[in-house]
User: Fold this.
Amino acid sequence: MTSGGQAPRHRAGAGDPSIRRTWWLLALAFLALGLASAIRVVQSGSLGDWIVLVIVAVAALAAMAHRNAVVRLEAGGRGEAEGFARILRGLSRSVSAEAIVGAIMDDLVATTAVDHAVLVRRRRDGTALEATLVTRRAGVPASTTPLPLADLEAPPEREAPAAQPLPVGQLAPERALAANHARPIVRRQPDGVAFPVPVGPGTPAATAAAPGRRTAAAGFRAGDETRDRVAALIRRALAEGVSLLRDLGLPVPERRRRERLGPASIVLARGDEAQVARRIADRVRLVFGLSNTLTVPLRSESGMSGAIVLSRRAHEPWADGPRRLLLAAAVETSAALARVDTYREAATRAWTDPLTGLPNRRYFDESCGLMSQRRRAGDAVAVLMIDIDRFKLLNDTYGHPVGDEVLKAVATAVARSVRDQDVPARIGGEEFAVLLRNPGPTVAVEVGERIRAEVERLDLRSLRVPGVSVSVGVAQADDPSEPISALVERADRALMRAKRGGRNRVVAAGAAVPA
Assistant:
């Protein structure tokens, strides 16, 4: 008994012992019937005994084909379930968008046995699409290629094209007949006056104008439809016969199709999504040189966010298993990417100062901690502490809304003055800080001076503020083993010296205050 109080059940299917016993019993019953019918045929040889023997043989073949089909169906379903479980395990372990893309691509290639898999999604900055290609060939790394963002845009609403008249000779027989009926027939009265008589389909004049042509066109059309139906029935019968031979386990040669119109491109979507997904698939086939693709869109709350494209070199039709697996994988991938995006947005909000858009104190402290852990011997580190001069007086004079605008302007000046590898942050009130990575001997002071000059040049006349200035304290680690927290304290003390020395200046820790 299980913990829930229920006995464990056997899995139903070809591998179940009860199913195997049933098949063996059925096989023995058909064998006995076949032997009995054969004996009666040998003894009497009547037509009825031959009919019974043929019926028993056909029933035995049908049972054998059914058994093989069930085995294949169960094996395919089990492989599909295992592949989907593998995809879910890979997605559950992924905590970043890059890890999700890598996991889903590798698992799709492995579970669907395709030659290539491509995931197309919008870049984080929203400037373009990003296509990641994974190939089944061992030793070939994944490659990423940018694609135009316009491929993801919804198709414009198109107006119905105006009908263009064609010469009657280029129309189908029945359309040509209708066109002829639409032409006016000119009749003349005995007095010589001519007037047109309109002739259209279904009118007495039309019937009188060309009764023979109407009958001939209808006959041609009926004959063509009959031939098409017969040809379709023959093709279906042949296909069913080949499938029956394959179900019986007999070797059936594969018929190679000639690709006259190029490789197939199947899209598992409808409406506008189908048009966008097909456009992305065509772009992927052109960029990577793929063929016979199967595409499904990726969806988000805001609409279509990308697509997954599977490709294989063989031009055989796509089975239901890969289609179902790709549809399920697209749903799970969309959910996983949305989850990562939500987490990233929440982390960004937690690490960003809402007023200035700069990183906040929490992000600055975490960056200092990471720098301390990854710091190697010889790595240079410097810290700038920046404070707006007389900011309390500015708030009292012009009001807090104006003070907020001044904070934004100063934050922009700080961000514009530092290097790409540096970390600027607003750490509270009117105070800012910058963590400089690997600065040269004079770089820290130069960056501090650049910030001071940039703030001094700010044009705040729209706020009716004559201008502002900042004081900057600079501290650079002389010893690689010096903690960054100690470096921050030294920079803060240098900032206090700059304030006491007259403000609007840059002071380095250990240096004399400039006059």
Residues 1-12, 158-210, 256-262 have pLDDT under 50 and may be disordered.
